[in-house]
Amino acid sequence: MALPFSRLRRWFALGAILMIATVAGMYFYARWRVHKVVHDIPAKIGLDIQQTAEGFSISKSIEGRTLFTVSASKAVQFKGGGRAELHNVKIVIYGKDAGRFDRITGDDFEYDPASGNVSATGTVLIDLEANPEGIQHSDQTAPAQTRDPIHLETNGLVFNRNTGNASATGKIVFQTPQASGSAVGIDYVAKTGTMNLMSSVALDVTRPQALRLNADHGLISKQPRQVALTAVRLTRERQQLQSDQATFFLREDNTVDRILAEGNVRSEFHGRKASNSETSNSGAHGRSDRAELFLTGTRNQLTTAILSGNVQLASGDAASRVSAGGQNTGEQNLGSGDRGERVAEASAGRVTLHFAGQQILQTVHAEGGVRLAQKKSQGGAMAMSSSNSSATASAPTKGDAQDVEMTAPVMDFIVKNGRQLERAETSGPPQIVITQPGSNQKTVVTAAKFKAKFTEKNRLGMLHGEPDAKIVSNKIGAPGQPERVSTSQMLDVIFRPEGGVASIKQAGGVSYLDGTLKAWAQRGEYTATDQLLVLSGSPRVVDNGMTTTAQTIRMNRTTGDAIAEGNVKSTYSDLKAQPDGGMLASSDPIHVTSRSMTAHRSPAVAVYTGDARLWQNANVVEAPTLQFDRDHRSLVAQAGAQGSMAQLVSTVLVQVDKNGKATPVTITSARLNYTDAERKILLDGGVTTKGSDTTLTAQQMTVFLRSRSESRAVAGPGTPGQVERIVAEGKVVITQPTRHASGDRLVYTAAEDKFVLTGGSTGGTPSIFDAERGKITGDSLTFYRHDDRVLVEGKETSPTVTRTQVAR
User: Fold this and answer.
1) Which segments of 428-551 are extended strands (E)?
2) Burial, 496: exposed, middle or buried (Cβ in 10 Å; 0-12, 13-18, 19+)?
3) DSSP annotation of 339
4) CA angle 40–43–44, rounded 5-degree value
5) DSSP state at residue 178
6) Angstrom distance (rounded) from CA 557 to CA 562
C-alpha cells in the first residue's frame, strides 16, 4: 500500500488553490466592485455623470486612469425619501493599475440614502478577469480576448455606502475553468477586511483531479491574508480528508503559502477493485491533532508537511504505516473500514514530510517515540508507529504467527518515487518486539541504531542494528522462567516477503544465555521457521557443567537440543565422585571428541559420531558412535557398518596390581553398553580383550568392575575402573605365550588371576593346548595367568582332578 502522505499533499494543494480562487472572487466582489459601483447616488458623490444613448453612466478616474464605470439604461429617483432605482446595470472595474477587467451586471438595484444601503433586488452576475494589457495604456480598454474568468452569481446583495460592508443571505454560486462551488450567506466587514461565508461552503474541482471540498463555515481576512474554514471535508475518488478547522495562509498574490489543519485531522483511503465482482481489502485510515503544509510557487506546490499531536495511520492490507503521536490514546475510529482488517497502525509525537518537484514525497522524519509494527495474526500486515506508551513476524501456520513492532525516539525514512518506502534509520535507543501468540513467546531486539530496508509492498525487508545489539526472549505469562539473552556487536533481521521475521543474524562477540546454558561465538543466526540458533566462528557452549566446542553448533530454542559439527570436543566437569561407581566414577572431567554431536537436554544425553573418543583419566572408549548420558554416567558405543577393525568399539582400562604397576587392558567389540551404577560393561558382536600377556576373544563378554572405593582399598589411589571379573561366552579363545585354550564360557577373576573355562566350541569339552605337553581337555578347566597350574574337572558322576606340570 502506498503511503497516505503522497495523497494528502495533492488534496491540500488542489483544495488550497481552488478555495483561494473562490475567496478572492468574493473578496474582490464585495470590496472593490460593489463598493465602487454604488458608493452613492451620482448627484451626491460628485462623480462625472452624463446622459448617454444607453441611458445613464458613471465613471471615476485618478491621475488619468479610470477606476470603474457604471452604466444603466434607466435611473429613477423618488422624491419621497430620496430613494433611487437603477435598471439594467453594468459595472466594469479596472483597478488602480488598470490590470483588471471585472464586470458586474444586474437588472435592478435600489439605493436608500437614509440607511446608505444599496441593494440588488434580483440576481447579480460577476465576472472576474485579469487584464495585463490594460497596464500598457494610458486609459483602460477592454482586453483583446477573455482569459478564463471567474463567474459568480448571487441574489439580494446589500452594500452599505457608510460602512463599506456588504452581505447576502442567499446562495452564492461561483465557477472557474477548473472548479465550481457555492455558499449560503456572506457577510463582508470593510473595517477589518474580512469576509464570512456563513454556511454550506462547497467546492467541486474538475481538473487536474476531481474532488469535492465542503465546510460548515468560512472566514476570509485581508490582514492577515488568510482563509479559515471549519468542519472541513475533502472527498476524492476512494479518498476522504477532514478536520475541525483548516486555515489557508496567503501571499500578496493570493497564492497559498501554507495550510494549517487543526482538530481531529482525519484521512481515509480505499483500495481499488480487483475485479468487477471482487473488492480489494486494501485501505488506510489516519488521524492527527494538527497538520501543517508549506507550499511554493504560483501552482502551490507542496514542499513540506508536518503532522503532530497523536498522529495515527492505520492500514487494512498487508502494507506499511508511519505515524506519530505524543500520548497514545489508543485506536481511533478513523472511518468505515473493518477494524478486524486494520492490522497496520501507527502513532508518534511529530512527523515531517519533505517533497521534491512535482510534489513527490522524498523523506519522512518521525520523532517523539516512533513505532513500526507488523501484524500477521489476522492476515498479515506491516506497520510503523510511535508512542510514548509501552511498546511482532508471520508464518504459514496459526501457531507460528508473529507480530513485530519496532520503536525508537526518532526515525528517518527515504521514500522512492513518492510512494514506496526504501529505507529508514533510527536515532536514540530503538527496539524490536516479536510476539508469537500461538506459543506465548516474546522476543525484544535492541541496538544503539537500526537501519531498515523495505520491500516493494512497503513491508520491512531487512533491519541492521549496531553497536551493542541484544536479543531477549521469554515466555509470556510465565515470570518464573528464565529469559533467553543474546548479545553481539551487530545484528541483521531478515523478514519474510509475506511479513514476519525469517531470520536474525548476529556478528562480533556473540554471547547467548538460556537459563543454565551459556554460549559464545563470533557469529550467530536464528531462523524462525525451525527455531534454530546456529553458532559459528569458534563457538563454545556451556550447560550444566558440559562445555562443547566445534566449528558449528546448532541449538533448537524450542526443544533445547543441540547439534555440533567439525572438531567437536565436550568436557563434562563439576562431577561428583561416585564411591559405588566404576569406570566413570571419578570427580575428574570426562572428555569426548568426535566429528559431530547431537545433544538432548531432556534427558541429558549426547550422541557423538565420527571417530568418537571418550575418556576419564586413563579409561578410554573409542567408537564410530558414542551415546553418553551425563546424569546416569552411562555409555552406549556402536561400531560402524563396515565391521572392519577401524570401525569397531575400542575400550582401554588400566589395571593396577598390588605393587602399583599399571597395565592397560584393551577391549574391542561391535557394541558396548555401560552404566556406572551397575559397574558392568556389556560387550557383544565379537569381543577381543588384550592384556600384557593374554588375549581373550568371544562372541560376547561382560566385564564387572570394582567400585571406586574397592579399587582404592586394593590398589591405592589409582584409576577407577579396575576389572573385578570377566564373563565371556560363545566361542571363547584364550591365547597366552605358551598355551592356547578354547571353550564356550569363561569366567575370569582378577583377584586370583584365575580362568575357569567350560563348554566346548562344538558342544564338547573345553581344551588347553600346550606346545610341549600337548592337549588337555575336561568338563571344566581352571588355570592361572602367572603360574603353570591347570585344574581339570570331570563330570559330577565321576569327578577327576588332574595336576599337570607344564614346562615353561
Assistant:
1) 431-436, 441-446, 450-454, 460-465, 469-475, 484-488, 490-495, 501-514, 517-527, 532-536, 540-543, 546-549
2) buried
3) G
4) 50
5) S
6) 9
720/54 Cα distance (integer angstroms): 135
Its pTM stands at 0.68
C-alpha grid cell, residue 333: 475510529
Please write the tens of the pLDDT for every residue from 327-357: 333 333 333 333 333 345 677 888 888 888 7
Amino acid at 108: D
Give the torsion through C-alpha atoms of 560, 563, 564, 569, to 10 deg: 60
10 vs 62: CA distance, rounded Å: 43
Q: Determine the residue type at 307.
A: L
Query: What is the grid cell recorded at 403?
Result: 507480530
Angle at 618 between CA 614 and CA 624, to 5 degrees: 25
Cell of 361: 514525497
d(CA 636, CA 592): 13
Helix (H, G, I), strand (E, B) or coil at 807: coil
For the chain, percent of residues with pLDDT exceeding 70? 68
pLDDT digits (tens, 9 = 90+) for 411-453: 998 888 777 778 889 988 898 888 876 667 788 889 999 998 8
Neighbours of 614 (CB within 10 A): 23
Instruction: Read off the DSSP letter of residue 574.
Output: S
DSSP state of 82: T
Nearest to 221 by CA among 262, 192, 256, 241: 192
C-alpha cell at 279: 473488492
